[in-house]
Design brief:
The complex is a heterodimer of chains A (277) and B (302). Chain A is mainly alpha-helical. In chain A, 79% of the residues lie in helices and 0% in strands. Chain A has one domain: MetI-like (MetI-like fold, Orthogonal Bundle). Chain A has 11 helices and no strands. The chains are: A mainly alpha (277), B mainly alpha (302).
Chain lengths: 277, 302
């Protein structure tokens, strides 16, 4: 199809793009072991000392704890809301069905500063009426709002690939609603739910654009990084934290990818089996 | 939350059975139960917030008391219309968003094409993961990476030095363009990759059989088919650039729309109503952008 020249050009272009994606990350990892505080290239001496300095930082640990708590709560809310909504949209035809996914994606589709300012205005205006203040609760409410779409997308993709005949067969064989849900629907959705939850957790754990407007005096890990990124003498510690955060985000993404990837394989195998018959 | 009210775990069979039978028979109730909580949440929290933002843009800040006065007026909008700084910054930000989008699309094309059409399934999956991983890497880590890269005497300076070029234009808008292009690149690659995968190989063969060369096949067959995917991808890079307020002060001295809104909303200005009025500009730009994207069937490509 493509000429030899095109194939070579595409390969080189793809390689350059990959390099562009990864060189900065590799550089950050290298600098984490740099003994010197200065950022001159190349680093001369290497050390692990910045890791132990970071480990002993109490405010850093506090920020990490806050981030984990916020992510757990936001993910739990998003799991319930995203799963329910995906079932409604998958199962029913109703007025405004197309609008549902549009509303869900709005918090991440609109410019970040708009979402941030809107949520912060809402918190401010509801302070007198329902006593909501800036801080952990506001962060959780905000994060859950844009995490819903991640769970929703994962679950609805799975529902669309799962044949409805499975639940019908279960019902025909005498399984009642709860049994069918527990024995058929849930095992089918399980990996999609885990993948959605991991992605929602990652989204919340890393978020700063909206968090900065909702946090008040509370400090999350990204806010800690933001507070210290401008200080030249804290550069090595920020660097170490950056590498740890990088590793922490690779693991859940890798698992999520494996879960949905393998499920895709199962679905296509099912389709092949069903095809000729 | 809502599940427990209908089917508490403690009281097993009889109640859950009755509840599920009820839901099975009453489709309306089932729809309310499944869609209700999510819709309520989104409307109460998100749409309500947007409405509050819109309303507060008509309030004004009393310059003497620094208090927000809850009287309706178009004063903030008049200020924005009459002061050229808002227009200059808006123009600059839109140009930046367009430049970032074009850069990302150009960078995305070869990788997406290679992964979708030339690579083996195993390599394709590896490449997919290689793109997804940096997408989920922390935003600030990526900004920090480029701060390190672009620092005086840092890797970029060392690299350019090899070609006898002295120094990257440090804190200029070019740094911001580079950093934002980097951060949003994975968001742009994924929809374009998906678009390339949806092009049936038989179309390309047909085009070739009918005598078209590679270049012509690309322009006449591939491009029209992947265009919705490209538009879908550009929604991300465009909207994210318009809404960004953190990267600009960290890597450049350039003022973009997001910063202007951020500065007005907090700090010494603390003029939330004016910030709210100004935030309707990116909102309006994105609304127009999304309408055009929808007309080009980009949503089906998301």
């Amino acid at each position: 199809m493509e000429s030899r020249f095109v194939r070579v050009a595409v390969r080189i272009g793809a390689g350059l793009t990959l390099a562009f994606l990864y060189v900065p990350l590799v550089i950050v990892v290298i600098y984490a072991f740099n003994k010197s505080v200065s950022g001159d290239w190349p680093p001369q001496l290497f050390t692990l000392k910045w890791f132990s300095v970071a480990w002993q930082d109490a405010t850093l640990k506090g920020a990490l704890r806050t981030s984990i708590i916020a992510a757990i709560f936001a993910t739990s809310i998003a799991l319930v809301l995203g799963t329910l909504a995906s079932h409604a949209v998958h199962k029913f035809a109703f007025f405004g069905r197309d609008a549902v996914s549009f509303i869900l994606v709005l918090p991440i589709a609109l410019p970040g500063i708009v979402t941030a300012l809107a949520l912060s205005s809402a918190v401010e205006s509801s302070r007198t009426s329902i006593g909501l203040t800036f801080g952990l609760t506001a962060i959780i409410l905000g994060h859950a709002t844009f995490c819903v779409v991640v769970v929703y997308n994962n679950v609805i993709a799975r529902l669309r690939r799962t044949p409805g005949s499975l639940t019908e067969a279960s019902m025909d064989l005498g399984g009642d609603g709860p049994t069918t849900f527990r024995r058929i629907s849930l095992p089918n959705m399980r990996t999609a739910l885990i993948a959605g939850a991991l992605l929602a957790f990652g989204l919340s754990f890393d978020e700063i654009v909206v968090t900065k407007y909702l946090a008040g005096t509370v400090e999350t890990l990204p806010l800690w990084i933001y507070g210290n990124i401008q200080r030249p003498f804290d550069r090595p510690i920020v660097n170490v934290v950056a590498v740890v955060v990088l590793l922490l985000s690779i693991i859940p993404i890798y698992i999520a990818q494996r879960l949905t990837g393998s499920a895709q394989g199962i679905a296509s195998a099912e389709a092949e089996e069903a095809g000729p018959g | 939350m809502a599940t427990t009210s209908v089917a508490p775990r403690g009281a097993r069979r009889p109640f859950t059975r009755r509840a599920s039978a009820f839901l099975f028979r009453h489709r309306g109730a089932q729809l309310t139960f499944t869609l209700g909580p999510t819709l309520t949440w989104m409307v109460v929290i998100y749409l309500f917030s947007l409405v509050v933002l819109l309303i507060s843009s008509f309030w004004t800040l009393n310059p003497l008391t620094a208090q927000v006065e809850h009287t309706w007026s178009f004063k903030n909008y008049q200020t924005i219309l009459h002061e050229s700084v808002y227009w200059r910054v808006t123009f600059r930000t839109v140009v930046l968003a367009a430049a970032v989008t074009v850069t990302d699309v150009l960078l995305a094309f070869p990788l997406a094409y290679y992964a979708a059409r030339m690579a083996s399934p195993r390599v394709r999956n590896l490449l997919l993961f290689a793109v997804v991983m940096p997408l989920w890497a922390n935003y600030l880590v990526k900004v920090f990476a480029w701060k390190t890269m672009l620092a005086t005497g840092g890797p970029v300076d060392a690299f350019l030095g090899l070609f006898g070029i002295h120094g990257w234009p440090g804190t200029s808008i070019y740094s911001l363009w580079l950093v934002l292009s980097y951060i949003w690149l994975p968001y742009v690659i994924l929809p374009i990759l998906a678009a390339f995968e949806r092009v049936p190989a038989s179309y390309l063969e047909a085009s070739g059989d009918l005598g078209a060369r590679a270049g012509r096949t690309f322009r006449k067959v591939v491009m029209p088919l992947v265009l919705p995917g490209v538009v879908a991808a550009s929604i991300f890079s465009f909207s994210l650039t318009l809404g960004d307020y953190l990267a600009a002060p960290l890597v450049s001295k350039t003022l973009v729309l997001g910063n202007l809104i951020d500065q007005l909303a907090g700090g010494t200005a603390n003029n939330k109503p004016l910030a709210a009025a100004l935030s309707t500009i990116p909102l309006a730009i994105m609304a127009i952008y999304l309408l055009i994207a929808r007309a080009m069937h980009a949503f089906e490509a998301l």
